[in-house]
Amino acid sequence: MPYLGSEDVVKELKKALCNPHIQADRLRYRNVIQRVIRYMTQGLDMSGVFMEMVKASATVDIVQKKLVYLYMCTYAPLKPDLALLAINTLCKDCSDPNPMVRGLALRSMCSLRMPGVQEYIQQPILNGLRDKASYVRRVAVLGCAKMHNLHGDSEVDGALVNELYSLLRDQDPIVVVNCLRSLEEILKQEGGVVINKPIAHHLLNRMSKLDQWGQAEVLNFLLRYQPRSEEELFDILNLLDSFLKSSSPGVVMGATKLFLILAKMFPHVQTDVLVRVKGPLLAACSSESRELCFVALCHVRQILHSLPGHFSSHYKKFFCSYSEPHYIKLQKVEVLCELVNDENVQQVLEELRGYCTDVSADFAQAAIFAIGAEKREQRGDKKSLGDCCQVSPTKILHCRCAATKRVPHIWLPCGIARTYTDQCVQILTELLGLRQEHITTVVVQTFRDLVWLCPQCTEAVCQALPGCEENIQDSEGKQALIWLLGVHGERIPNAPYVLEDFVENVKSETFPAVKMELLTALLRLFLSRPAECQDMLGRLLYYCIEEEKDMAVRDRGLFYYRLLLVGIDEVKRILCSPKSDPTLGLLEDPAERPVNSWASDFNTLVPVYGKAHWATISKCQGAERCDPELPKTSSFAASGPLIPEENKERVQELPDSGALMLVPNRQLTADYFEKTWLSLKVAHQQVLPWRGEFHPDTLQMALQVVNIQTIAMSRAGSRPWKAYLSAQDDTGCLFLTELLLEPGNSEMQISVKQNEARTETLNSFISVLETVIGTIEEIKS
Amino acid sequence: MIGGLFIYNHKGEVLISRVYRDDIGRNAVDAFRVNVIHARQQVRSPVTNIARTSFFHVKRSNIWLAAVTKQNVNAAMVFEFLYKMCDVMAAYFGKISEENIKNNFVLIYELLDEILDFGYPQNSETGALKTFITQQGIKSQTKEEQSQITSQVTGQIGWRREGIKYRRNELFLDVLESVNLLMSPQGQVLSAHVSGRVVMKSYLSGMPECKFGMNDKIVIEKQGKGTADETSKRCLRQESCGKQSIAIDDCTFHQCVRLSKFDSERSISFIPPDGEFELMRYRTTKDIILPFRVIPLVREVGRTKLEVKVVIKSNFKPSLLAQKIEVRIPTPLNTSGVQVICMKGKAKYKASENAIVWKIKRMAGMKESQISAEIELLPTNDKKKWARPPISMNFEVPFAPSGLKVRYLKVFEPKLNYSDHDVIKWVRYIGRSGIYETRC
Prior knowledge:
Low-confidence stretches of chain A: 374-414, 586-590, 624-658
Largest interface: A-B, 115 and 101 residues
Strand order of the largest sheet of chain A: 1-5-4-3-2
Shape of chain B: flat
Mean pLDDT of chain A: 79
Low-confidence stretches of chain B: 136-155, 226-242
Oligomer: heterodimer
Largest sheet of chain A: 5 strands, antiparallel
Distance between the termini of chain B: 47 Å
């Protein structure tokens, strides 16, 4: 690979390109140009031969032209002055009799990403919009968007927008779709292309003429249209019915989403739609295209959150095949444990047991967790219940909140083990018999959580435990085992002896967390079986206080030592917390989430990444958008390595140091507010999802924290509910906001007005507001 | 929208890179290589997020295709696009391999230029694309071709151009099915389904109107109702025909099929694109003819020996021949030697794949064949029990395992004077194994 010594290569190619003999021989000339492109693909800097390449663009050979244009589009930003030389040739090509040449030239010209090119491309684009060949029109329409992008966020050319709107009626389907795409980008600041009734109906009628990409795109744009009457709504749904059965899964999902959103007031229609897409979705789930299968499975899981029994009769479709890739197997296991019901529980458990001995340790562990019905976020840390309930019962709730905040949806208790405890415990116990390290550790962790959630299985778990200590090496597993021995030690005859082994080896123990767990467990066991434990507790405390180097462990040891000095009753009061909490999971689970809560996320990346992960991704993106200093390409800055964590940190601290600083205690009078509100135009309007009741005081408090004052607010529960807010930043710019909840609507409408038009600060203000409202929404649910 | 499209070989070297939007930089190319292709563990997901950029990848043999975007896009659509891209490339130069990609490097850039503009998918029909791609290059365009471009893109039907003429009107229908099976060791079918495609290759003049008929249960019952009202008669008819009609779980069609007609009359009528295209895709789960049964018998003799006996039975008409049969019997990791005896075909122990591979060239229906193997194991102190992966099978049979039959394909062309009888029609059925596994 010629990554090194690119200078020689450039020199040699330059020579070849200048050689008149080569220039005369078309094939040889083209070969040299091909080599340039090849090096460019490999990442070599080829901008050195720009001049020669520009010369090569003046040719009749279309292939050569295409190659040179490709080259120019890549390097034009680096050599804007030289690129201008090529404009002449391009302009000439734009009036070539061959539509293909015209299209090619126009497309390339619009793709030259360099300042100052706008004035040259404007006229050719306008000509292209009226070209008789639709091929050229397609290119020209997208060219408008490219031109707008080059301008940055400058003002919108009204005449051009009108022209594009009229081209929505073009004969060629691709021109129509491109118009929508182009308008969407040009009008991004104003909320995108407007879909009114005539446009919506026109698009609906053209749907069947479009190709699959167009259909998917148009379905997405139609989401924006709000039918005027119920009748119209059902007409639209009838018209789109056939797309639920399209041959393209993307179109099927797009249509499903549109149905779910349009019919948000009609739950029975939504359910009906989900029943009808069952077939296509199942087909996608068992299709040979694995990636598509993966995406479909993600969406199946999404649907199952609202309709738990939806795919139950098809559970066999979700059995894993040996040769399937890892990611599909993991998804299928997740789906399987949500499908369990009284009829199929035996078969599903039998199947899951088979997976537990899979060669891939990862997959085996996932299957075991599935049996234990502990839904764990794949990327989240494995913070688990046991850790939270060490100290005192009053703290449990607190800890739990902390844990869930970090990784939402840790537990999903509608799982198998809660309802079918006996079968599950039996299977898990059998697995222990295999004496495999990676299996035993996960089984013991599952036991710990099970005992906490379903106290009725304690007896069985206690009988299964003896002997597993030999097969556990990792920190998580050891912690779980020690916790179990401590809390339920009085039922396990050899508990003190197992713990004694751990105490003997405490010096060579590498994980501080295990030592902490050991301290707590031994103290607990001491309370129930003092005779057997007293001696080793002494030794352990001595070791922890005198020899241990880890401060946290030492502190814990000292704490327990002093606690023991106070007296045994005090120790009992603090350590003997409840041993189980069957209600815990139920509290966590919002039983069945309504379809509307995820309909807007359907067919996006949200179900693919998982809601929590997506939230972190989009939060960072939001912050990046707000900050004008950050150059567009910073995330792939030329030199630095690409480490997501680093970027995240950098971006997260930006909002604090960034543009927006709201001034505290800036209270406006109601009169002044009203006057200003009426005199200003709405700068930004937005809709956030919102459901159910809440307490206005909470909102007011939360807003206060970020220095947004509440001027007036309707009483809780009244419909429509309104609130007026004001805030001012350090430059004196005022932000006036109206929050509006319409009766029966699950959305909160936000309108913001600003007394100085500055988009950056407006954007940051809105993101602050979004965060606050999002947090309240989270607390509420 | 797609911000960029990259193609890598298995080492992670970039073969093709095309960027459509400013927000995707050159570093994205390296980010994917480092985080996914060179990652130590196996692929976690086909969608990877690196520094807020989403990478969608598919793999074809040892080539990676990755689409990159920063937007919140429809994942299904992006993957469909990548598949389409693969299809289009395959239509131009056959198998997608490193060598082919390197050799057709210019062509791929040309294709990428036409299929995507500013990251938005444009025309992707192979037939329609041919007019824009100058694969061989130099050939300059005639007046006629120029007008074709205009007519092709302004015509009412996007998938077929006007004025196609053939001396011989011919059409080929392929019913291609892949049968998937998961069977328990006791011979119980855990799950089985057939996913099939009807692929049509048409060389027909003008704008022919085609009508396709098959033994779909709903259609046949409808017709039965039409001719004979008495239920007894219908029962008789069905009994006499045996299993003549099949129940299709769901089916989807090429864009050219008029769906409204299908919904109302369940008839499939269309104006076909020129050349090859996929008319229909379907899936069945009921009454599948499983071409082969695999009966495994594994016996552990002591700690160092394993006896395996596998019987395969073919279950179709004796006059038909199955081809390319391959049975793959997994062996434990600590295998030291294998003795195989088989009555038919050739069997070989492949240590690198940890499996005995048994190949039979041809096998007629209603036959039985068996293989027995003695596997010697090295004694290990590894207590890990052997997981016993399933026995898998590959084969090809000349019938449709779903039972689908083509009843007719009629061609009408009112403007040109050729009738249905003048068209030469060919129908072929091929059933292949998908994932065909028997647990042991």
